[in-house]
Design goal:
Layout (H helix, E strand, L loop, with lengths): L2 H69 L5 H26 L1 H5 L5 H10 L3 H16 L3 H25 L6 H26 L11 H35 L4 H19 L1 H23 L2 H38 L2 H9 L4 H16 L3 H21 L1 H4 L2 H26 L5 H28 L2 H22 L5 H17 L5
């Protein structure tokens, strides 16, 4: 399967998975309410810190290690490296789980709301299972088994949604709704671990002596783990600090928790839509770029970098006009919350640095630049925390979004500078300028049309017409400025399918 088909397959799975997760987030927002969603979000944010410590840096390092072994013809190293990763992750996650249960009473004090502590300890038993699952998934990644990788991720999401909806809608009792959502997360972790383990063994995966693999994996994964752990810690710090700073600015505890729930549970899932595409692109490109890097094929490395950046530019350029013109309507329609819609619209421009940052960090890590990406993250995290500390009295909830924008801008700029050094030069300058022009024109069309239609039509028809007009203008502008040819792409794809059917089958 070639690079484009693989990317299309993974993207289809990722979009479907994120769409289901998005729908589930809407269900949670309407079932739990902004305050309950904030409680749930805080618990999972803190849990993410320990999941990051036990597993986050190892999967990408394992994937790159397997790619290195394959490039050098050392196929026996695959199971050894996978075993080493599983042992490291299981040891760390098991120790964390035991310590946190022994220290439950003092540790629970870090939560601003005791309900968040309850949800956290419901999910905590799944830490080891999902950490080991992440290592098995990393072996799939390194071996380019993208179908299994994506399918199991989708199954995990489906199980969480089905169990969550069943518990929230069809069960009654003394268990709080937010705790039921936590139970759904735990069950999904157990199921994905079981399915991945069975597939791993069915494909010949075995546990072998990890001799010679543990220390190299540990050394390579530590910078990535440190960066992602600090990212999770920053997220946990923000989940505690932001409500406190909002309370200092005059809000009640319930209002502050609701403000965090709106941003974390409503606004950010919408703004992270490009991540559905970018994560699938990174998933396919990382093993390819790692092989090119170790083979010193700089020309192909530069070409892959340009393709990935162009895709990120195009995604951001396509979504910014829609969010600018229709963001407020999206918040009201999906979450029945006008404030979330206003924040979505005001944060639309964040999509560009965010998309660049996400794809560039993945590419740099595939080239062994974990220490540099860690430094870039620290710069961005410092800007985020400073904004959350200083700006709430002036911007209210917008302080968190301004901080996120500053974080992504710093990370994106630094990452692009390093990519130039690694690949010689970036070939995406012209493409970026054309995307920027198209996005500006489409945004202008959308904002003007939305203002006109809202004066003469009701809410739903006005926004539907605006969205359709913005989408049509984008397709036309993309074609005019030679950015994307959807019709030509579809015809080419269909011709290849027809040609393949006409070829005689091998005996």
């Amino acid at each position: 399967m070639n690079l484009y088909k693989t990317t299309a397959l993974v993207t289809a799975f990722t979009i479907f998975e994120h769409a289901l997760g998005f729908v589930y987030r809407i269900i949670l927002s309407r079932t739990l309410g902004p305050e309950g969603l904030g409680v749930y979000q805080v618990a999972l944010t803190v849990f993410a810190v320990f999941l990051t410590i036990s597993s986050s840096g190892l999967p990408i390092t394992l994937s790159r290690t397997i790619s290195k072994h394959r490039a050098r013809g050392y196929l026996a190293g695959e199971n050894k490296a996978t075993t080493a990763a599983i042992m490291l992750s299981a040891a760390v996650s098991g120790a964390i789980t035991l310590i946190l249960f022994l220290l439950r009473t003092p540790f629970s004090c870090i939560f601003s709301d005791p309900r968040s502590a309850d949800v956290f300890y419901i999910v905590l038993p799944g830490l080891t299972f999902t950490s080991v699952y992440a290592m098995i998934r990393g072996s799939f990644w390194g071996n380019k088994r993208f179908f299994a990788y994506s399918l199991i991720e989708l199954i995990e999401e489906i199980i969480m949604i089905l169990v969550g909806v069943a518990l929230l809608v069809f069960t009654a009792g003394t268990i709080a709704d937010v705790n039921k959502a936590g139970v759904a997360v735990l069950i999904s972790y157990l199921c994905s671990f079981t399915i991945a383990s069975l597939y791993f063994w069915s494909k010949g995966g075995r546990l072998r002596s990890p001799k010679g693999e543990i220390m190299p994996l540990l050394r390579s994964s530590l910078p990535v783990t440190a960066m992602r752990t600090l990212s999770s810690l920053a997220g946990s710090l923000i989940s505690v600090l932001f409500p406190l700073r909002m309370m200092a600015a005059g809000m009640s505890r319930a209002q502050a928790m609701s403000a965090y729930g709106i941003i974390g549970g409503m606004v950010m899932p919408v703004l992270m839509i490009p991540n559905s595409f970018i994560s699938s692109i990174a998933l396919v490109l990382v093993p390819e770029m790692a092989e090119c890097y170790y083979k010193k094929d700089r020309e192909k490395l530069a070409a892959l970098t340009a393709k990935a950046l162009n895709a990120a530019f195009l995604l951001a350029g396509a979504l910014i006009p829609l969010f600018l013109s229709c963001g407020e309507g999206v918040g009201i329609f999906l979450f029945r919350n006008a404030e979330s819609g206003k924040l979505i619209a005001s944060s639309a421009l964040m999509l560009l640095p965010m998309s660049i940052s996400l794809i560039a960090t993945s590419m740099l890590n595939s080239m062994g630049c974990e220490k540099q990406t860690l430094l870039f993250f620290l710069l961005g995290a410092g800007a985020l925390i400073a904004c959350v500390w200083i700006l709430p009295p002036y911007l209210g909830s917008g302080a968190l979004l301004v901080g996120m924008a500053a974080e992504y801008i710093l990370t994106a700029v630094c990452s692009l500078v390093l990519l130039v050094k690694k690949t010689g030069r970036l070939r995406s300058g012209s493409y970026f300028l054309r995307v920027l022009l198209c996005a500006s024109l489409s945004s202008l069309i959308g904002v003007l049309l939305e203002n006109i239609l809202m004066a003469v039509l009701s809410y739903i028809p006005a926004h539907l017409i605006t969205m359709f007009a913005v989408g049509a203008s984008e397709l036309a502008l993309f074609r005019i400025f030679h950015l994307f040819y959807p019709v030509a792409f579809l015809k080419k794809f269909l011709r290849k399918k027809a040609k393949r059917r006409r070829l005689p089958k091998a005996a």
